[in-house]
Amino acid sequence: MPTTRARRASRVRDAVAAGGVVLRGSGDALEVVVAGRTSDHTWVFPKGTPDAGETIEETALREVREESGLEVEILRPLGTIDYWFAIPGERVHKIVHFFLMRAHGGDVSRHDHEYDDVRWVTVSDARRLLTYDTYRNMLDRAVDAAREAAA
Asked: Which of 95, 98, 47, 99 has its CA nearest to residue 76?
């Protein structure tokens, strides 16, 4: 006879993060920074959680600087993505604020330990590398915003 196991109700909480889509160049030479991990084979844009007292913009600038090795500036907000994940005892709804950014210094070789590989790639290569559709959609927003700004 099958047994059923009672499920303990998971606590639900919201989490916030911020990051950036860093572009350089124009037209067919447009490139974007992507960050990858070998452990889970994911490619994403740099992002992270706010430190106490930080604004979303300050978080985005700090996280992109730490995770990419680049000194960046925000050009404009790109919007948010959200997703759910579970950890023991709770479900987390994460909202990530992204900004279009431009690098004005630094080098991707100086990225921190959070990612194994950070590199500049063409937009078409980024579209193939990025693990999640939500990141590909954010890439499209960034490219559209950059083209609008250049027009």
From this structure: 99
What domain range includes position 65? 12-150
- Tell me the CATH number at 134: 3.90.79.10
User: CA–CA separation, 151 vs 140, rounded Å?
Assistant: 17
Mean pLDDT across 66-76:
97
Q: Are the beta carbons of 63 and 54 closer than 8 angstroms?
A: no
Q: 43 CB contacts (<8 Å, ≥6 apart)?
A: 34, 35, 36, 129, 130, 131, 135
With a threshold of 0.85, does the pTM exceed it?
Answer: yes
**10, 91 Cβ separation under 8 angstroms:** yes
